[in-house]
């Protein structure tokens, strides 16, 4: 009887945590940094690849893209063109439940 009670409590706790996560994620708007990381994760690419794609979309030179990326690395500055590009292409933030049940994997560049 005690084991069943503990299992019931564990199940109730897990369901409560999934519900709380779902409510929080629907209220939370991603910052530019979170949106940038999320899009890189979704595309399984690096942040630099997103700088290059956004710069290509706006027809910027490679030198400008490299300078903007270096500024991002040193100071965390996200240029407006990249922020706009990311917001246009990122999917909404996914909940823990969606990640858990869709079998998300880490991008190949992160896997040891």
Compact overview of the structure:
This protein is an all-alpha fold. It has helices spanning 2-27, 32-43, 47-57, 62-75, 80-89, 96-102.
Salient structural properties:
6 helices; single chain; rod-shaped; mainly alpha; 0% strand; 71% helix; 112 residues
Low-pLDDT parts are: none
* Percentage of residues in strands: under 5%
- What's the tally of helices? 6
What summary fits the major beta sheet?
none
The H/E string reads HHHHHH
The general outline is rod-shaped
Number-wise, the strands total: 0
Portion of residues within helices: over 70%
Distance between the termini: 44 Å
Average of the residue pLDDT scores: 79
Rg of Cα set: 19 Å
Judged by helices, strands and strand pairing, the structural class is mainly alpha
Task: Give me the oligomer status.
Answer: single chain
């Amino acid at each position: 009887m005690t084991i069943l009670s503990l299992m019931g409590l564990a199940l109730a706790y897990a369901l409560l945590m999934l519900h709380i996560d779902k409510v929080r994620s629907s209220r939370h708007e991603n910052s530019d940094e979170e949106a940038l990381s999320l899009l890189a994760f979704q595309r399984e690419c690096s942040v630099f690849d997103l700088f290059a794609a956004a710069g290509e979309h706006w027809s910027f030179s490679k030198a400008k893209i490299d300078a903007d990326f270096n500024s991002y690395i040193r100071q965390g500055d996200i240029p407006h063109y990249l922020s706009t590009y990311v917001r246009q292409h990122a999917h909404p933030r996914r909940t823990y439940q969606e990640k858990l049940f869709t079998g998300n994997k880490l991008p190949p560049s992160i896997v040891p």
